[in-house]
Specification:
The complex is a heterodimer of chains A (175) and B (205).
Chain A (H helix, E strand, L loop, with lengths): L1 H29 L4 E11 L14 H13 L4 E6 L3 E4 L6 E4 L2 E4 L2 E3 L3 E6 L2 H8 L6 H10 L2 E4 L5 E4 L12 E2 L1
Antiparallel strand pairs in A: 1-7, 1-8, 1-9, 2-3, 2-7, 4-5, 5-6
Chain B lengths: L1 H37 L1 H6 L1 H57 L4 E10 L5 H13 L4 E4 L2 E3 L14 E6 L2 H9 L4 H4 L4 E10 L4
Antiparallel strand pairs in B: 1-4, 1-5, 2-3, 2-4
Chain lengths: 175, 205
Amino acid sequence: MISVLQDQTKHTQTDLKDLVADVEEKKAKVGLTKIEDEGIVVVLNDSEQRETNPNSIAHASDIRDLVNHFFQNGAKAISIEGAGEKEERISFFTSIDCIVNTVLINGTKIVPPFKIRVLGDRDRMITAINDRVALKQIYDRVDKESLEFHMLDGQIMVKLTKYSGPAEIKNAKLK
Amino acid sequence: MQNLSKITKTIITRLIFIAIFLLLGLIVANQYVLYSRIGFANLGDDPEGTALRISRLYSDNEKLRSQIDERQTQLNELQNASISSNDLQRLLQKDRQKYRIITGEGVVEGSGVIINVDHRMVLTQIIDFVNALKNSGAEAISINEKRIVVDTPLNEFDGKNVFLIKVIGDKETLYSSLTRPGGIFELIINGTAERSDNIVLPKVE
């Protein structure tokens, strides 16, 4: 009986090892693990000019558009950091919303300056941030209203925090 | 005659003594053989050896008991390992299924809302619309039968005129967030929504 159990345990351990590896891979894909890889860090901040108007400040919609833009250009993972080093990882569940004068990401209120940390091929990401056609709305405000938008120099390897917001699945199930 | 008689008496007396001693000798010899056969003679002869054998038997017995205990512990450990492995496997499978739903690796089904939009939408509107759905608790989304996951860019839908958006999540919350005054339809773009319990979304291409 012991040898049968030993064989079963060996099989179970092998199965468990494979399963753990698979789960860890998927967990990373969901954004539930910290990650470090090549990439860029982009700063988006309100204009320093005294007379502000809606076009001179950084909006939640700018962050949403930039997130979509970087994924369009092959980004692997993205996080948004606000003042006070509050960093939130973008996951499937993430919504980026304007709440009065703060931006709510994963239930955390953050304020500018925003640092958008993007993991992906650096050359592609640099090309993406310099795409004045795709980012016309932002660059127009950079030119006219001094909205701050640029890439941080010297950041080749970029670290992203893990997603820690809600991730409940109550209604969807695999078919 | 009297003299003969004395001699005879003496002989007879001696013969009787001889017979008695012979009988006693036989009894003693018989006892010796009997004791030798049943082995009592050894017991009496080697008490220290017997104690040693008994001591060895105790020692062997202890060793066997110890081995039985060891095997029992091993058996319990293996059985426990098997039970905890099964528990762990169940938990991991549950996580795996959840992550497969989130990453879009599998076809999913569930309740939620089906949205029809028959106006042109530009990229920013689509991004805002999907963001609002996530804010309302969307668990899985597809647009025009394409599964939307975390890194799906929405550019391919830019400028389209017809949208079939399927969302799995709490159908009442989703429906209300879309249709209430000041809701998603009013703020972003108008459309129609219906609750459904049988929504099926494709997996990521």
